[in-house]
Amino acid sequence: MSDSSSYTTGGGIRVRTPGIPIKCWCGERIKELISKTNLNPYRRYYRCRYAAQRKLENDNHIFKWVDKAFTDEIQHLDYQVRMLEEEVQVLKATITSGPKIMKGGCLILGLGVVVGILMYK
Ligand SMILES: [Zn+2]
């Protein structure tokens, strides 16, 4: 799309999704590690820094496989895109029934959001 559409997605819209963990509930940041167990050799995972440093086991600090987190993330984005598509449909319906001046603005905003999400993906 045009340059003007990318400006609308520049700020604020990027939301941290629950797919890839960023912080543990305890306030510690998340570390990316590689599993060395026989069950999951070389499988990457996210782990709470606190728990990783103390080599905790059977705790309730964040632990999440990277591949699982990415699948979650993709599903979440897929859901977001579908919601946006619905929103665009609503906007389109509003445009056809609304006053002519609104046409351009709504369409560019709607497209901008969709393009922004697709590019983020
Ligand atoms: Zn923690």
UniProtKB/TrEMBL annotation:
One of its GO terms (molecular function) is zinc ion binding. Residues 24-69 form the GRF-type domain. InterPro entries: Znf_GRF. The keyword Hydrolase does not apply. The chain crosses the membrane at residues 101-120. Keywords: Membrane, Metal-binding, Transmembrane, Transmembrane helix, Zinc, Zinc-finger. This is GRF-type domain-containing protein.
